[in-house]
Amino acid sequence: MNEFSIIYQRDLMLSFRRWPELVNPLIFFAVVTTLFPLAMSPDQAILQPLGIGVAWVAAFLASLLALDGLFRNDVEDGAMEQLLLSPAPLGITVLAKIAAHWTASAVPLLIVVPLAALTFTIPLAVLPTLVAALLLATPALSVFVALGAALTVTLRTGGSIIGLLVLPLCAPLLIFGARATDLALGGEPVAAPLLFLGAISMLTVSLGPLAVAAGLRVGLE
C-alpha cells in the first residue's frame, strides 16, 4: 500500500499542476447543461425528464475528456518506463493512477452537478440520488476509460478511439444511473439501480486494473 499512496499522491499533484486538463471537462459539462435548455421548450414537464438524460450523457463525455491523458503524459516524459521497471506490481500502479485521476476529475464534476438540476428545473430532492448514482458509476467509468487509454497509449488520435472502445461498456452504467434518477424524480424507491451500479463498480475496480495493466503492456509493445 506504500507504493499505492506514493503514486496516488504523485499523480494527484501532477493533475492539479495541469489545471487546464481539469477545468476543460467542467467547462464542457457546464456549457452543455446550460445551453441545452435554451433549444428546448420551457415546459417543466419536458425539461425534467430530458434533463436527466442530458446530465448523465454530459457527465460521461466530460469524464472521457478528463481521462484521455491518463497514461500518455507518463509515456511522453519517460516516467512510464520507470514505473514498469519498479518493484511495485503494475496492477497497484494502475489502480493508484486511476484513483488519482478519479479524485481530480470526478469529484469536481460531482460538485458541478447541481448546475444541471437548476437549469433543467430538477427538484433538489432528486439531487442526492443523482450525486449518489454518479458517485457509484464514475469509478467503473474510470476503469473502462483507463483500459481504452492503455490500449491506445501510443496513438496521437487515441481520444476518439477511446470513446469508441469505452461507450459500449458504459451503457449499463448510463442505463442504471438514469433509471435511478428517473425513479427519484417520480418519488419511487431507487435502491435497486443503485445496488446494480455499486456491484458493477466493485467488480470493475477489483478486476479492471489487472486488465488495464495487461493492456498497457500490449499498448507499449
Structural commentary:
This protein has 10 helices and no strands. The longest helix has 30 residues, at 191-220. 82% of the residues lie in helices and 0% in strands. The protein is mostly helical and 221 residues long. It has one domain (2-220). It starts with a helix and ends with a helix. Helix 2 (19-35) packs across helix 6 (90-112).
At a glance:
The protein has 221 residues and is mainly α.
Instruction: Point out poorly predicted stretches.
Output: none
Q: How far is it from the N-terminal to the C-terminal residue, by CA?
A: 28 Å
Structural class: mainly alpha
Radius of gyration (CA) equals 18 Å
The helix fraction, in percent, is over 70%
Can you give keywords for this protein?
mainly alpha, 221 residues
Topology at a glance:
Blueprint: H1 2-17, H2 19-35, H3 44-66, H4 72-77, H5 79-85, H6 90-112, H7 114-119, H8 127-151, H9 158-185, H10 191-220
Helix pairs in contact: 1-6, 2-3, 2-6, 3-6, 3-8, 3-9, 6-8, 6-10, 8-9, 8-10, 9-10
